[in-house]
Specification:
This protein is an all-alpha fold. The protein has helices at about 5, 15-30, 35-45, 60-80, 85-110, 115-135. The protein is globular, with a radius of gyration of 16 Å.
């Protein structure tokens, strides 16, 4: 196998973009003050619901979603995952790194366990969706 084949296996740009959009939309809904989880997140963050307005920092989320979806697509391609369950499992393997980092950040920042659970649940659901979309649209 050549080095280029290892770095850039056949991956679906459509699958990556769909997975990134799905992750971004999930995050928008998950952390929205319109949802019970979003309200709880805001309470845990000690945020006033009236002050919840998206700012320029929101630009980081589509970029991070694309990078995460790309990583998922690469691991799926490298692993040869071809079924829905294999794609989801491969995505959860990638997501384990993000989940571990979220757990570490929760502890290091002295955040509540509820806040950590909110973040980790979002990541588990998001990576599951990304893995499914990358396989289904690949």
């Amino acid at each position: 196998m050549s080095a280029m084949a290892f770095v850039y296996p056949h991956i679906s740009i459509i699958g990556i973009l769909a997975a990134a959009v799905a992750q971004f939309v999930l995050g928008f809904l998950w952390y929205s003050p319109m949802t019970p989880v979003g309200k709880r997140w805001m309470d845990e963050m000690h945020m006033d619901r009236g002050d919840a307005k998206p700012g320029i920092e929101m630009l980081a989320f589509p970029v991070s979603a694309i990078l995460a979806a790309w990583a998922v697509a690469m691991v799926i391609a490298w692993s040869g995952a071809g079924t829905l369950s294999q794609g989801i499992l491969a995505a959860l393997v990638v997501g384990t790194a993000a989940i571990a980092q979220a757990m570490g950040a929760t502890v290091a920042n002295s955040q509540s366990m509820m806040l950590g659970i909110i973040h980790i649940s979002y990541l588990v659901i998001g990576y599951t969706i990304m893995g499914a979309l990358v396989v289904l649209l690949g």
